[in-house]
Amino acid sequence: MIYFKACPRCRGDIQLQNDGTGDALHCLQCGYERAVAPHLLAKAREMQRAKAA
Ligand SMILES: [Zn+2]
């Protein structure tokens, strides 16, 4: 899954990856990386749904 323009550093596109130990966000443009807590991930998905509706 990709979150467009979601990078806090460069406003680039963030890809959600799972490295086996957990989910992580990875910016396609600048390489910004961040681990994601499961509850934050659920919240992000909620927000995506709200935007789509
Ligand atoms: Zn970035």
List key phrases describing it:
single chain, 53 residues, alpha+beta, four-stranded antiparallel beta sheet, 1 helix, 28% helix, 28% strand, binds zinc ion
If you had to describe this structure to a student in words, what would you say it looks like?
It is a single chain. With 53 residues, this protein is an alpha+beta fold. The protein has one domain. Helices cover 28% and strands 28% of the residues. It contains 1 helix and 4 strands, in the order ββββα. It has one helix spanning 38-52; strands spanning 2-3, 14-18, 23-27, 33-35. The protein has a 4-stranded antiparallel beta sheet with strand order 1-2-3-4, with no helix packed on it. Strand 2 and strand 3 form a beta hairpin. It is globular. Bound molecules: zinc ion (ZN). The site of zinc ion has 8 residues, from loops. Zinc ion binds next to loops.
Element layout with pairings:
Elements: E1 2-3, E2 14-18, E3 23-27, E4 33-35, H1 38-52
Antiparallel strand pairs: 1-2, 2-3, 3-4
Bound molecules: zinc ion.
